[in-house]
Amino acid sequence: MNHLLHTLVLVSTCTVSVAQSKPAQNAKRAGQQEFSVHSTNKSRGLFVACDRNRDDRITYREALQAIVEINRQRFRKFDTNNDGRIQAPEFDRRFKELTGFGGKLTLTKSAVQRLPATTADVSITLVRFFTNLDKNRDDRLSDAEWKPVEETLVTLQRLQFTRLDLNMSGDLTLSELAVLDDLIKALHKGSAKKPSGKQRRPLPEELRAADLDADSLLSERELARALVRIHLTLARLAKQIIQRADTDGDQHLNAVEVQAARITRPARKPWSRRQRR
Fold first, then answer.
1. Residues 56 and 131 in one domain
2. What pLDDT digit, counting tens, does each position of 237-249 carry?
3. Could you identify which of 37, 109, 166, 199 might form a hypothetical disulfide with 195, taking C-beta atoms 3.0 to 4.6 angstroms apart as the criterion?
């Protein structure tokens, strides 16, 4: 549990530091487009838009022409192997990190014009809907994973698997579900009853002990109690973490939100007794 809580604290404090030191940004210029939700398909489309010469690598010069507010320091966060080029896996990893905590990637007008037609931006509501159905975490929905939706909303023919599977691959991707974005948001907004603890996805095993009422949600109070066990001064960060990671506005963290809060970061040496003091 301590490892995951340390991650949440680190992200929360880093976010505040950046927010306080970063000057006010200019308003988005005409033609630019922001992307704030990650998906594998979207990441590939953005990579293609940035790769002007189609050599499957993005140079710093290409990045300058395609990504708003890029600089050498930010480029190096993409280029993790320091070879001066951004490969597709590096791009996807950094894009996922940026969007994991409310960040975004903004493309210039010229890059937007090179976006593949299938690169659709979707709401966080649809992403959560997709993630809850994707049991094996392969970024695709099989017929079996989609079946509960068809059975629940049997009267809506446009939800039929065969109608949505446009490329007839036998799976549904997030981009194929983009046509349902407005419908899913409307259903989510109109749902008066929230799922009970038994219906929710369980919290990660290392955080279940902090879930005092066993409802598969972490409240600010529960999070504060867990943080106190690491250090007395960390309890004050509970509210800040909830505000940053709570994407549905219910003042609690569910399993999906906790999972989204997990960012890739370099391994650190264990704290010594002197550091703890």
1. no
2. 888 888 888 777 7
3. 199
Q: Helix or strand or coil: residue 215? A: coil
Q: Does residue 148 share a domain with residue 102? A: no
Q: Are both 181 and 214 inside the same structural domain?
A: no
180, 211: one domain: no
Q: Structural domain of residue 238, as residue ranges?
A: 205-260
Counted domains in the chain: 3
- Alpha-carbon distance 91 to 77, whole Å? 9
129/160 same-domain check: yes
Only one residue has tokens 């490329």, namely: 167
Alpha helices in 82-179 (DSSP H): 88-100, 109-112, 124-133, 143-152, 161-164
Measured in whole angstroms, how far is the alpha carbon of residue 60 from the centre of its chain? 25
pLDDT at 247: 75
| C-alpha to C-alpha distance for 2 and 227, rounded to whole angstroms | 8
Residue 4 identity:
L
Q: How far apart are CA 188 and CA 239, in angstroms?
A: 25
Separation CA 190–CA 277 (nearest Å):
50
Helix 40-50, helix 88-100: angle, nearest 10: 120
Would you call 26 helix, strand, or coil by DSSP?
A: coil
> Quick check: is 20 in a domain?
no
Residue of 64, 124, 80 whose CA lies nearest to 99: 124
> Is 253 contained in some domain?
yes
pLDDT for residue 198: 55
d(CA 152, CA 94): 37
Q: What is the pTM for the complete model shown? A: 0.42
Q: Which amino acid is at 141?
A: L
Helix%, strand%, coil% for the chain, nearest 5: 50, 5, 45
Q: What are phi and psi of 35, to 5 degrees?
A: -130, 115
**Do 56 and 71 belong to one domain?**
yes
CA–chain centroid gap for 117, Å, is 22
Q: What is the CATH number of the domain that holds 222?
A: 1.10.238.10
